[in-house]
Amino acid sequence: MKIMVAIKRVIDYAVKIRVKPDKSGVETSNVKMSMNPFCEIALEEALRIKESGQASEVVAVSVGPAQCVDTLRTGLAMGADRAIHVDYPGSLYPLSIAKILKALVEAEKPGLLLLGKQAIDDDCNQTGQMVAGLLKWPQGTFASKVVLDKEKQVATVDREVDGGLETLCLDLPAVITTDLRLNQPRYATLPNIMKAKSKVIKKVTPQDLNVEIKSDLEVVQVTEPPKRKTGIVVSSVDELIDKLKNEAHII
Amino acid sequence: MAIRAMLAAVRNRSFTTAVAPRYRFLSTLVLAEHEGGSVKASSLSAVEAIKSLGEDNSVSILLAGSGPSLQEAAAQAASCHPSVSQVLLADSDKFTYPLAEPWAKLLHVVQKKGNYSHIVAASDSFGKNILPRAAALLDVSPITDVIEISGSHLFVRPIYAGNALSTIRYTGSDPCVLTVRSTSFPVVSMSAHSISSPAAIEQVDLSTFSEDDAVGKSRYVKLSSQDTERPDLGNARIVVTGGRGLKSAENFKMIEKLAEKLGAAVGATRAAVDAGFVPNELQVGQTGKIVAPELYMAFGVSGAIQHLAGIRDSKVIVAINKDADAPIFQVADYGLVGDLFEVIPELLEKLPEKK
């Protein structure tokens, strides 16, 4: 079985982002970029499934401008067998990404499509669900545990939901989106980074895939959230209780 | 019915450029959740949010499931808000569990029949799982986790863990699919509304609900949840959170004791959940629960960006941490640099009993 993993290049999670003064977006030039942490977890899960003998190949895919290739190289260094870069100069909304992923899935025919549950830049949490809908595949989102049964062709997924931990059983092929506690991604070792240089990254465009990019959303402006009033430091529990009672009127 | 069909035909004419705001007839479908015979608070927030879409909005509430608790929830939904004109019931054991595949298909079927201008759900794990799938079936881009509605097609949502806000205009065709953050749309108490007559309750025609989709390819096995008397994190007035500083699951009981004293909900940071101190449903933050209580007390919490994302809209934030440089102190209204293992017992001793 082949596993396809969709990965996204985003501003590194530790970076303190700045909103551009013209409110057109967030500053991304000269800012550290990394593979989205949830995508790393998705790729790690795919590699573990392959290493356990339940999959034969892991294909990493990414949609975006030329720099995506860097993120795909990291994926190859972690252990993906090959990669596909869908070249598109701007940024795309989840509906378009989902359509592109659907076209790739139809070409590559994986038994499992893994994605991070959300990208830490737009925090959408939509793409996995959308591509599952387009493919008419079952979905297991926010997965904290995945157990494959190759014989029965099912995946048992534990999901982190508001009420606790939900367990679902999905017929393969399926779409699974990963949550934080699914696994701890590996670091790419130096020998693997070197090996990755000779692995193939195929480049295609949305037109090659017959995908029409639909534009039904428009970012009007990006602003900073309202700042909280600066707080104070109290020096004792008595003072804290006093403030909460008599100043904040909460207790 | 003929008038509705005519209006639907008018709405579905495609317009070439749609930049200038026009008066559009609004009709909103709310995907609501119910439990134990009551509509969930998060769904009531979604109904509240709809007011901001515009005047002249006819609201239909969609409930699905089976059995007497569904009927009870329907009766409640019919009287929950003056703008609700219809309650749609999909009564079938296909909807006993919150599986995305049948629910997204249901939304598709209901939308094709009703031609709503908007479909709205709460941005909780149920809504987040289902609405994007439904939007894909309808070939539209959803807008999720909306915190402000500035117009019928103009929305504000947080990005970068809430460190920036993005104002988005939806320029596509009907329906505009949204999930809204409950904490941003608090429910006005029932007594403030005057419901002249409850809305009509109608059955959804499921005869066209074909099985060609992924319905049937997923099966619900079980839900493991913590049995607790603590109020729900999502709408508690006070939240007491413990972080890595608690050091053990055993120590976390101190947080629970304090929460009990204050009548508060218990929250946790990702670090505390990862370390196994508490189960995942207590996690507060960018990828956990978003809370906006009147009082948020954080003990042994460093204040990582991703945790702050979940607590930004709290009225008052209190932080107790041994480390005076912990980032949490930058957002706390009241900070106390101290050892939580001494502060919590002192608070337990000195706090007044809850009213």
UniProtKB/TrEMBL annotation, chain A:
Main localization of the protein described in the UniProt heading: mitochondrion
The organism's place on the tree of life at top rank: Eukaryota
Record GO cellular component, one term: mitochondrial matrix
Keywords, in A-Z order: Electron transport, Mitochondrion, Transport
SMART domains for this protein: ETF (SM00893)
Listed CDD domains: ETF_beta
BP terms from Gene Ontology: carboxylic acid catabolic process
Ranges for domain Electron transfer flavoprotein alpha/beta-subunit N-terminal: 23-213
InterPro entries noted in UniProt: ET-Flavoprotein_bsu_CS, ETF_a/b_N, ETF_b, ETF_beta_N, Rossmann-like_a/b/a_fold
Gene3D superfamilies in UniProt: HUPs (3.40.50.620)
Xref: Pfam families: ETF
Similarity annotation: Belongs to the ETF beta-subunit/FixA family.
Task of the protein: The electron transfer flavoprotein serves as a specific electron acceptor for several dehydrogenases, including five acyl-CoA dehydrogenases, glutaryl-CoA and sarcosine dehydrogenase. It transfers the electrons to the main mitochondrial respiratory chain via ETF-ubiquinone oxidoreductase (ETF dehydrogenase).
Protein name: Electron transfer flavoprotein subunit beta
Phylogenetic lineage: Eukaryota, Viridiplantae, Streptophyta, Embryophyta, Tracheophyta
UniProtKB/TrEMBL annotation, chain B:
Protein origin, superkingdom: Eukaryota
Binding site for FAD: 244, 269-270, 283-287, 300-307, 321
Cellular component terms (Gene Ontology): mitochondrial matrix
Pfam families: ETF, ETF_alpha
The Electron transfer flavoprotein alpha/beta-subunit N-terminal domain, residue ranges: 28-218
Cofactor note: Binds 1 FAD per dimer.
Keywords linked to the UniProt accession: Electron transport, FAD, Flavoprotein, Mitochondrion, Transit peptide, Transport
Gene3D superfamilies: HUPs, TPP-binding domain
Cofactor(s), names only, from the UniProt record: FAD
Subcellular localization: Mitochondrion matrix
Stated role: The electron transfer flavoprotein serves as a specific electron acceptor for several dehydrogenases, including five acyl-CoA dehydrogenases, glutaryl-CoA and sarcosine dehydrogenase. It transfers the electrons to the main mitochondrial respiratory chain via ETF-ubiquinone oxidoreductase (ETF dehydrogenase).
Sequence similarity: Belongs to the ETF alpha-subunit/FixB family.
Subunit text: Heterodimer of an alpha and a beta subunit.
Protein's name in the database: Electron transfer flavoprotein subunit alpha
Species: Forsythia ovata
